[in-house]
């Protein structure tokens, strides 16, 4: 590249040989074009992969799609009995959505509060340490969380949390008996803990990147520290908060190991959070090895396709929200 | 100190309520930015503070509303009195103080994601004003004072960031004026603006100085000459000279002032 540029300068001076100059001029962008082509090819890879993914999954799921059509989405049956095989994904879809959304609903306010505390209250010298500790939490393998969930969290929920909740809020169907030893509430709590570091760390980054001039604008108006956070820091960091929540939701929707260990693995729809249930990811992980029939396998693949589409849909919706938040403003 | 005793003698009587600063020292950690500053700032007048970069101009005005101490490692010694009341007295709450001493910053900094209206109303809401009618009235009055009302009255709900740089800076002035401060500190308010926007701000300042005590840091010598009643010249954290602007510019007492205003350094 450098060489050709130098040559070009020479030829520009050398007006006696126009053909050579033309050739040089044409030859120069070849490197550029090769570069464009190669990075262009790389850029095409991810969308093509996604497309192939969907195609392969849809192909594998085809027997189930053809057999059950939309009933697969609304049926609660999971009958591997060869005489009257029937599969429906509704309990799993609901389980996935309920566990993830409730986990996010718990984790988001806690995570943003923790991030606000670290960002605005803790002295700068301690901030790095706290952030490090929280990021360590994110690196713990999910099977470790799962094991902790089985031996510590689930018994605690069973013996302490559930009785209190059902006594005080038992009139709500969500907190009604009976208690299963492993249940939806355990899954929600473990997901909350697992996605918390993600929300804290992304929110913390968003808050630390709020320009000091916004903070000073608030302080200069006579804002207390808390008012400054509310007035200047949170509104500017809002898209970061939402970004962190999207990441967290994506993680929660797909989280398999920890959930499958504590959720109880029952394919049923129950209003109570104390009931054992199941999620899409957990069902796939638990049952792919069994595969009593081709239709069963196809149904599992259709579950995978559904999970993929759910995560895709959630991410698209979240992205739309982020865009709207970025464009529109608070009062 | 030395400069003060010679320069202030003539003007001393004229200062009534205002700001008086005695042996003010301030800095960050080991680094001392202001060394024993003694000045008086007239009320209802515009006092310009000029000096080369790093001379402590900004630090000085940030001491007046106690914003300086919000920076980690910052420290202040000495005293500043506002209308005879010590700003650094233990009984003074910096939050309360900053509602009396407004500030406009170098770069326009309207609150992001806040509408024009909400920006101006922010300080009022901090003070607990909730009634829409009162807010409306105060927002309009503040925007009028900041000479921005006519330009924005039809789009008060648009985000503050949709305005041009000069308009944003006037919005920030309106935001500061809304809480009815006694003093308005301006930290190089025009340094990020084009000449036309600068001119509008300067016109505005000429109006505002009749009602408020204005203290403006400026890097721009001509600007000080155009708008300031009083000018002080800081160098390396010390006051070199203070006096009525016309006198300081036509007949500086200190040779360093003379070389600064004639553009030999800075």
Describe this structure as you would to a colleague.
The complex is a heterodimer of chains A (331) and B (266). Chain A is mainly α. In chain A, strands 1-2 form a two-stranded antiparallel sheet. The two termini of chain A are 54 Å apart. Chain A has helices at 2-13, 18-27, 29-68, 71-74, 90-121, 124-139, 142-169, 184-208, 212-220, 225-254, 257-262, 280-287, 294-327; strands at residues 78-79, 86-87. Chain A folds into two domains: 5-68; 79-330, MetI-like (MetI-like fold), CATH 1.10.3720. Chain B is an alpha/beta fold. Chain B has a single domain, classed as Rossmann fold. The chains are: A mainly alpha (331), B alpha/beta (266). Chain A binds chain B through residues 123-124, 211, 213-214, 216-224, 227, 231-232, 235-236, 238, 329-331, and chain B through 65, 67, 70, 72, 95-99, 102-103, 105, 107, 109-115, 118, 122-123, 126-127, 159, 172, 175-176, 179.
Which descriptors would you attach to this protein?
heterodimer; A: about 325 residues; mainly alpha; MetI-like fold; 2 domains; two-stranded antiparallel ribbon; about 75% helix; flat; disordered N terminus; B: about 270 residues; alpha/beta; Rossmann fold; six-stranded mixed β-sheet; four-stranded antiparallel β-sheet
